[in-house]
Design brief:
This protein is α+β, with helices and mostly antiparallel strands. The protein contains seven helices and twelve strands. α1 runs antiparallel to α7 and α4 runs antiparallel to α5.
Length: about 300
Protein backbone atom coordinates (compact mmCIF):
# COMPACT_ATOMS: atom_id res chain seq x y z
CA UNK A 1 0.00 0.00 0.00
CA UNK A 2 1.39 3.38 -0.98
CA UNK A 3 0.47 6.25 1.34
CA UNK A 4 0.66 9.81 0.06
CA UNK A 5 1.23 12.64 2.48
CA UNK A 6 0.64 16.25 1.44
CA UNK A 7 0.28 17.78 4.90
CA UNK A 8 3.45 19.94 4.71
CA UNK A 9 1.70 22.13 2.15
CA UNK A 10 -1.59 22.59 4.03
CA UNK A 11 -1.67 25.05 6.89
CA UNK A 12 -2.86 28.53 7.81
CA UNK A 13 -3.89 31.40 5.56
CA UNK A 14 -0.33 32.65 5.20
CA UNK A 15 1.23 32.07 1.78
CA UNK A 16 -1.96 30.35 0.60
CA UNK A 17 -1.26 30.47 -3.10
CA UNK A 18 2.38 29.39 -2.91
CA UNK A 19 1.40 26.42 -0.79
CA UNK A 20 -1.39 25.57 -3.16
CA UNK A 21 1.03 25.56 -6.11
CA UNK A 22 3.35 23.26 -4.20
CA UNK A 23 0.43 21.02 -3.34
CA UNK A 24 -0.44 20.68 -7.03
CA UNK A 25 3.00 19.25 -7.72
CA UNK A 26 3.03 17.05 -4.62
CA UNK A 27 -0.17 15.42 -5.87
CA UNK A 28 1.54 14.60 -9.18
CA UNK A 29 4.37 12.89 -7.35
CA UNK A 30 1.90 11.00 -5.18
CA UNK A 31 -0.31 9.79 -8.01
CA UNK A 32 2.59 8.66 -10.16
CA UNK A 33 4.05 6.62 -7.34
CA UNK A 34 0.95 4.43 -7.25
CA UNK A 35 1.05 1.03 -9.07
CA UNK A 36 -0.22 1.46 -11.73
CA UNK A 37 -10.72 11.47 -33.39
CA UNK A 38 -8.99 13.65 -35.56
CA UNK A 39 -9.77 13.31 -39.27
CA UNK A 40 -7.06 13.00 -41.91
CA UNK A 41 -7.03 16.74 -42.57
CA UNK A 42 -3.64 18.41 -42.29
CA UNK A 43 -3.49 21.86 -40.77
CA UNK A 44 -0.92 23.97 -38.98
CA UNK A 45 -1.07 26.86 -36.55
CA UNK A 46 1.84 29.05 -35.46
CA UNK A 47 1.21 30.72 -32.10
CA UNK A 48 2.97 33.70 -30.51
CA UNK A 49 2.22 34.46 -26.86
CA UNK A 50 3.06 37.92 -25.54
CA UNK A 51 3.03 39.43 -22.07
CA UNK A 52 0.94 42.62 -22.19
CA UNK A 53 1.02 43.20 -18.43
CA UNK A 54 2.18 46.74 -17.75
CA UNK A 55 3.41 47.09 -21.32
CA UNK A 56 3.86 50.67 -22.50
CA UNK A 57 4.65 49.61 -26.08
CA UNK A 58 2.41 48.44 -28.90
CA UNK A 59 1.13 44.87 -28.79
CA UNK A 60 3.47 43.69 -31.53
CA UNK A 61 6.47 44.92 -29.52
CA UNK A 62 5.41 43.47 -26.15
CA UNK A 63 7.71 40.77 -24.73
CA UNK A 64 7.28 37.32 -26.26
CA UNK A 65 6.57 34.60 -23.69
CA UNK A 66 6.53 31.66 -26.08
CA UNK A 67 6.27 30.64 -29.72
CA UNK A 68 4.92 27.28 -30.81
CA UNK A 69 4.18 25.34 -33.98
CA UNK A 70 1.23 22.93 -33.95
CA UNK A 71 0.81 20.37 -36.74
CA UNK A 72 -2.24 18.14 -37.19
CA UNK A 73 -1.27 15.02 -39.12
CA UNK A 74 -2.39 11.37 -39.40
CA UNK A 75 -4.47 11.33 -36.24
CA UNK A 76 -1.81 13.02 -34.11
CA UNK A 77 -1.15 16.60 -33.01
CA UNK A 78 2.48 17.71 -32.79
CA UNK A 79 3.00 20.82 -30.64
CA UNK A 80 6.56 22.18 -30.55
CA UNK A 81 7.73 25.03 -28.30
CA UNK A 82 10.81 26.56 -29.88
CA UNK A 83 12.58 28.19 -26.94
CA UNK A 84 12.16 25.21 -24.61
CA UNK A 85 12.87 22.71 -27.41
CA UNK A 86 10.00 20.61 -26.12
CA UNK A 87 7.52 18.56 -28.14
CA UNK A 88 4.11 17.34 -27.06
CA UNK A 89 2.35 14.73 -29.19
CA UNK A 90 -1.36 14.28 -28.49
CA UNK A 91 -3.09 11.13 -29.73
CA UNK A 92 -6.82 11.64 -29.15
CA UNK A 93 -7.76 8.13 -30.24
CA UNK A 94 -5.52 6.73 -27.48
CA UNK A 95 -6.17 9.58 -24.98
CA UNK A 96 -2.41 9.85 -24.56
CA UNK A 97 0.43 12.37 -24.58
CA UNK A 98 4.04 11.73 -25.54
CA UNK A 99 6.49 14.35 -24.27
CA UNK A 100 9.98 14.89 -25.68
CA UNK A 101 12.63 17.27 -24.39
CA UNK A 102 15.25 17.69 -27.09
CA UNK A 103 17.45 19.68 -24.73
CA UNK A 104 17.53 16.99 -22.04
CA UNK A 105 17.23 14.07 -24.49
CA UNK A 106 14.41 12.50 -22.47
CA UNK A 107 10.87 11.36 -23.26
CA UNK A 108 7.83 10.11 -21.37
CA UNK A 109 4.15 9.27 -21.78
CA UNK A 110 1.06 10.14 -19.75
CA UNK A 111 -2.63 9.43 -20.28
CA UNK A 112 -5.47 11.91 -20.03
CA UNK A 113 -6.94 9.83 -17.22
CA UNK A 114 -3.77 10.30 -15.16
CA UNK A 115 -3.83 14.04 -15.75
CA UNK A 116 -7.51 14.30 -14.84
CA UNK A 117 -7.05 12.23 -11.70
CA UNK A 118 -4.45 14.72 -10.56
CA UNK A 119 -6.66 17.68 -11.42
CA UNK A 120 -9.62 16.26 -9.52
CA UNK A 121 -7.56 15.98 -6.33
CA UNK A 122 -6.07 19.44 -6.81
CA UNK A 123 -9.51 20.98 -7.21
CA UNK A 124 -10.71 19.24 -4.05
CA UNK A 125 -7.77 20.72 -2.17
CA UNK A 126 -8.42 24.14 -3.73
CA UNK A 127 -11.96 24.19 -2.38
CA UNK A 128 -10.60 23.16 1.01
CA UNK A 129 -8.20 26.12 0.92
CA UNK A 130 -11.06 28.48 0.10
CA UNK A 131 -13.32 27.27 2.90
CA UNK A 132 -10.62 27.18 5.60
CA UNK A 133 -8.82 30.48 4.93
CA UNK A 134 -11.44 32.96 3.67
CA UNK A 135 -12.37 34.25 7.13
CA UNK A 136 -8.71 34.76 8.12
CA UNK A 137 -7.55 36.33 4.86
CA UNK A 138 -6.15 39.84 4.68
CA UNK A 139 -6.57 42.00 1.56
CA UNK A 140 -3.69 40.45 -0.39
CA UNK A 141 -4.69 36.93 0.53
CA UNK A 142 -8.24 37.79 -0.45
CA UNK A 143 -7.06 38.62 -3.97
CA UNK A 144 -5.17 35.35 -4.18
CA UNK A 145 -8.21 33.42 -3.00
CA UNK A 146 -10.40 35.20 -5.55
CA UNK A 147 -7.96 34.17 -8.30
CA UNK A 148 -8.04 30.60 -7.01
CA UNK A 149 -11.85 30.56 -6.98
CA UNK A 150 -11.85 31.87 -10.55
CA UNK A 151 -9.69 28.94 -11.62
CA UNK A 152 -11.91 26.44 -9.81
CA UNK A 153 -15.32 27.78 -10.83
CA UNK A 154 -15.32 30.62 -13.37
CA UNK A 155 -18.72 32.28 -13.70
CA UNK A 156 -18.47 34.06 -17.03
CA UNK A 157 -20.89 36.42 -18.66
CA UNK A 158 -20.54 35.34 -22.30
CA UNK A 159 -21.12 37.85 -25.11
CA UNK A 160 -20.71 37.19 -28.84
CA UNK A 161 -20.62 39.78 -31.63
CA UNK A 162 -21.59 37.81 -34.73
CA UNK A 163 -20.87 40.71 -37.08
CA UNK A 164 -17.22 40.87 -35.95
CA UNK A 165 -16.77 37.28 -34.75
CA UNK A 166 -15.63 38.54 -31.35
CA UNK A 167 -16.22 36.57 -28.17
CA UNK A 168 -16.01 38.06 -24.67
CA UNK A 169 -16.10 36.10 -21.42
CA UNK A 170 -16.12 38.33 -18.36
CA UNK A 171 -16.30 37.70 -14.66
CA UNK A 172 -15.15 39.47 -11.49
CA UNK A 173 -11.62 38.06 -11.47
CA UNK A 174 -10.72 38.02 -15.17
CA UNK A 175 -11.88 38.35 -18.74
CA UNK A 176 -11.22 36.64 -22.06
CA UNK A 177 -11.37 38.54 -25.34
CA UNK A 178 -11.18 36.40 -28.48
CA UNK A 179 -11.16 37.37 -32.15
CA UNK A 180 -12.34 34.40 -34.19
CA UNK A 181 -12.57 33.15 -37.75
CA UNK A 182 -14.61 30.59 -39.65
CA UNK A 183 -12.68 27.40 -40.53
CA UNK A 184 -12.66 25.73 -43.96
CA UNK A 185 -14.46 22.73 -42.41
CA UNK A 186 -16.41 22.28 -39.17
CA UNK A 187 -14.28 19.26 -38.31
CA UNK A 188 -11.26 21.57 -38.01
CA UNK A 189 -12.91 23.31 -35.05
CA UNK A 190 -13.45 20.09 -33.12
CA UNK A 191 -9.97 18.82 -33.98
CA UNK A 192 -8.34 21.97 -32.64
CA UNK A 193 -10.56 22.41 -29.57
CA UNK A 194 -10.17 18.81 -28.51
CA UNK A 195 -6.41 19.39 -28.55
CA UNK A 196 -6.81 22.75 -26.76
CA UNK A 197 -8.92 21.15 -24.02
CA UNK A 198 -6.39 18.36 -23.48
CA UNK A 199 -3.34 20.64 -23.38
CA UNK A 200 -5.02 23.08 -20.99
CA UNK A 201 -5.29 20.17 -18.57
CA UNK A 202 -1.77 18.92 -19.25
CA UNK A 203 -0.12 22.34 -18.89
CA UNK A 204 -1.61 22.82 -15.43
CA UNK A 205 0.25 19.66 -14.41
CA UNK A 206 3.55 20.42 -16.10
CA UNK A 207 4.08 24.14 -15.58
CA UNK A 208 4.25 25.94 -12.24
CA UNK A 209 2.74 29.19 -13.52
CA UNK A 210 -0.04 27.69 -15.64
CA UNK A 211 -3.56 28.32 -14.34
CA UNK A 212 -5.98 25.49 -13.71
CA UNK A 213 -7.87 24.59 -16.90
CA UNK A 214 -11.53 25.38 -16.19
CA UNK A 215 -11.46 29.00 -17.46
CA UNK A 216 -9.84 27.97 -20.74
CA UNK A 217 -12.24 25.04 -21.10
CA UNK A 218 -15.12 27.53 -20.79
CA UNK A 219 -13.65 29.64 -23.60
CA UNK A 220 -13.20 26.53 -25.74
CA UNK A 221 -16.82 25.57 -25.15
CA UNK A 222 -17.97 28.99 -26.31
CA UNK A 223 -15.85 28.74 -29.47
CA UNK A 224 -17.22 25.25 -30.07
CA UNK A 225 -20.79 26.56 -29.75
CA UNK A 226 -20.15 29.09 -32.53
CA UNK A 227 -18.00 26.70 -34.62
CA UNK A 228 -15.15 29.19 -34.89
CA UNK A 229 -11.38 29.13 -34.43
CA UNK A 230 -9.25 31.70 -32.54
CA UNK A 231 -7.08 34.31 -34.22
CA UNK A 232 -6.28 36.37 -31.13
CA UNK A 233 -7.03 35.41 -27.52
CA UNK A 234 -6.37 37.68 -24.54
CA UNK A 235 -6.65 36.74 -20.87
CA UNK A 236 -6.52 39.63 -18.40
CA UNK A 237 -6.81 39.40 -14.62
CA UNK A 238 -8.79 42.25 -13.12
CA UNK A 239 -6.14 42.76 -10.41
CA UNK A 240 -3.44 43.08 -13.13
CA UNK A 241 -1.51 40.01 -12.01
CA UNK A 242 -1.68 38.65 -15.55
CA UNK A 243 -2.34 39.90 -19.09
CA UNK A 244 -1.43 37.54 -21.91
CA UNK A 245 -2.16 37.56 -25.61
CA UNK A 246 -1.93 34.56 -27.96
CA UNK A 247 -1.95 35.24 -31.70
CA UNK A 248 -2.63 32.27 -34.01
CA UNK A 249 -1.59 32.09 -37.66
CA UNK A 250 -3.53 29.34 -39.45
CA UNK A 251 -2.54 27.48 -42.61
CA UNK A 252 -4.68 24.76 -44.14
CA UNK A 253 -1.82 22.86 -45.77
CA UNK A 254 1.67 22.00 -44.67
CA UNK A 255 4.71 24.02 -45.58
CA UNK A 256 7.63 22.22 -47.24
CA UNK A 257 9.55 21.55 -44.00
CA UNK A 258 6.60 20.47 -41.83
CA UNK A 259 6.75 16.80 -42.80
CA UNK A 260 10.50 16.87 -42.31
CA UNK A 261 9.97 18.14 -38.77
CA UNK A 262 7.50 15.35 -38.01
CA UNK A 263 9.86 12.75 -39.45
CA UNK A 264 12.71 14.15 -37.36
CA UNK A 265 10.68 14.07 -34.15
CA UNK A 266 9.54 10.50 -34.77
CA UNK A 267 13.15 9.49 -35.44
CA UNK A 268 14.25 10.99 -32.14
CA UNK A 269 11.54 9.07 -30.30
CA UNK A 270 12.68 5.79 -31.86
CA UNK A 271 16.35 6.44 -31.06
CA UNK A 272 17.71 3.79 -28.70
CA UNK A 273 19.88 6.45 -27.08
CA UNK A 274 16.88 8.46 -25.90
CA UNK A 275 16.40 8.31 -22.14
CA UNK A 276 12.91 7.11 -21.25
CA UNK A 277 11.75 8.27 -17.85
CA UNK A 278 8.55 8.25 -15.82
CA UNK A 279 6.16 11.16 -16.07
CA UNK A 280 6.95 11.97 -12.44
CA UNK A 281 10.63 12.38 -13.29
CA UNK A 282 9.83 14.42 -16.40
CA UNK A 283 7.57 16.76 -14.42
CA UNK A 284 10.19 17.25 -11.70
CA UNK A 285 12.92 18.02 -14.23
CA UNK A 286 10.65 20.46 -16.09
CA UNK A 287 9.80 22.23 -12.86
CA UNK A 288 13.48 22.53 -11.92
CA UNK A 289 14.28 23.89 -15.38
CA UNK A 290 11.55 26.55 -15.08
CA UNK A 291 12.80 27.64 -11.67
CA UNK A 292 16.35 27.90 -13.03
CA UNK A 293 15.26 30.02 -16.01
CA UNK A 294 13.25 32.39 -13.79
CA UNK A 295 16.14 33.16 -11.43
Amino acid sequence: IVRCSTSPYISSAGHTMSRFVLYRFSIVACLLSLPGFLNAQEMRVYTTVRNLRGSAVSEDRAPVVARSLTLFHAGKVYDYVEAAKELTIFEPSHHRFTLLSERRRVATEVTQDEVRQFLNLVEQEGWKQLTTTTEQADAQQGKSLAWLKFQLKPEFDVQFDGAKNVLSLTERAARYHAELQAPPTKSAVESYLRFADATAELNSVLHTQAPLPRPRLALNTAMRDHELLPIVVELKAMDDRLHLQARHEWTWKFQSRDRQLISGWESQLSDSGLRRITFRQYQQESMASEVSRNR
